Predict the 3D structure of the following.
Amino acid sequence: VEPVDPKAALLSRIREALGNRVERRRRDSSAAPDVPHAGPGAGPAGVARFRERLEAAGGTVLEGPGLDPLLPALAEALRREGVASLLCPENDGQARTVAEALVPFGPFAIAGEGEVRQAAPPVTAGIQSAESAVAETGTIVQTSRGGRTLLPGLLTDVHVALLPPDAVVPRLEDALGGLADDPPRAVSLITGPSRTVDIEATPAAGVHGPRKVIAVITP
Amino acid sequence: MTDPRPHAFSRSAESALADPDLQAALSCAIPRLLERRRAAVAADPGFEEARDAASRIKAEVLDDLDLHLERFIAEAGKRGAKIHAARDGAQARDIAAGIAREEGITLAVKGKSTVAGEIGLNPALEAAGVSVVESDLGEYIVRLAGENPSHIVASAVHKTREQVARLFNVVLGEPYTEEIPALVGIARRRLREKFFAAGMGITGANFLCADTGSVAIVTNGGNGRIAATLPRVHLVIASIDKVIPRLADLPLFLRLLARSATGQPLSSYVSVLTGPRRPGDAEGPEKLHIVLVDNGRSAILQGKYRDILACIRCGACLNVCPVYRSIGGHAYGWVYPGPMGSVLSPLLLGLPDAAPLPDASTLCGACAEVCPVRIPLPDMLLALRSDARAQGLRTPGEVLGSKLYAGAMARAGVLEALQRIAGIVSQLLWRNKAIGWLPWPFSGWTARRDFPAPAPQPFRRLWKKQRGIGPWNR
């Protein structure tokens, strides 16, 4: 007789199909092995690898000894995309500093969340401190930890991720491995702009999210 | 999804071959997908080892699926997700419609989910008063055309850009443009308002991590993460075979999936979601419902086809298959086309309802060569063919033919005698050229292409003459 609870019934059907053998009761299967890979480890080589991979995925990397020398290039990149407003999370002091420093460089206004949460928003760049980045794949990592928002990289036209060089880890395992004990509600791995190959397998950017992703790497 | 109709395979394949738009779309898109995969695999020194590891982990999961699923249910539940289990499509539809009713949903945005197509989710929700808007661009296009997806990754791979342009012009009333960025921009604008208005986001799951109760969703557009972030309710439809043991195993599978599906080192957006919105979170759904769909999979676990449940839905076997590349996905008659579909569909629908599918293969082996989890697809297709015969699904003529063939192939003397006769007849009738016409039941072959005339001397005789050696005269 099958249990009444649908979940118990599901498990019981599976057990029956597998033969109810006692000897197969082992909980943990073998761990994923460390497979060969091309990526260098951490440090400057890791940053170089991150840059190469993100650029290959259609992203842009600005790298410098400090923020000030990068501002003109960043502002130029935003102007080229027609950016009119800048969005940064309330609780992200660094992002706000960058946004405020950008304002004199162009016709940019600092916008609130409400402005991107509409059907026809102004062309917006979302600025945000990234939590880490992965050299192997050129991936920017954002999580929901500490009340962080995904919004600057979710609905905007341009996503600017601020990143210190020591936040670049070699592999995906390094970014995800430590999360299992206390996983945040949302982890977002972002590798280049929002992309589609749905029409004639031809890549096109910006189908839902940002059409441009810029990683700004400064100590 | 309309009712499954794999039994119409022959007729559907005929019309697919005669459809110039389909042929143009396939010959444009498929080589691009293949070339991207080839380059990505060539650039990855660990690809073969990763395939071995993934294949082993998947086999271990399936051997202990009850334990891994139990763990997933417990962990996801502990973190606030509401887990539902559905024995079949009807139960899954009822659960989804019940959730929509309970939450007062009238509009839902949906990411690409093949299992949702399998269970007929959209019509059930529409019947329950919920408008369902597809947010994956390929699915959006296919819905506008009133069609079904033809590929498990690139839903609209059967459409040319001109066809998409006409759809956007005629159905949406947008100005006619064949520029792909402009078409993408139209979809972005149209879908953006739906994301804000929707009360529920519906997605599939690429992987379920048992040790954390996390759902991993992979997209390139980013629609999955918007659907899982903005609406008040997130509904995940996942088949039970999506579970992997650990969050730490995810990178291995993500690499294989992205390289095999689209030739990327990693898909543009991967979301790993664990439970609903927590106190202090900036955003996220208040409720997370996960529907675990069996629909015949627990029965597959029992037999020799267990490994098909290791499939990660990358679509590489479709792209590489000479049959799929010639006819596209619709001819297969259901949500799962190509080699993986020709195995899975008969197992889920029952062989009598999908009998032509295992025959829709040349057994060339290309699918097994690319499968990232090393599913022995050609062996399974062959086994299904023999099941079909055992179940009496072959005509007496087919049974007799295969018996005669097997008898000749098993006896070297008989085979050689037949080859000699065929060689003499061939010399008399066709002078060793191609055969352009044969009577029924072989007319099916010669209607489309020539049959090579048998050689006057069989190979084995030539070999014996020239080399004078061989296992037969040792």
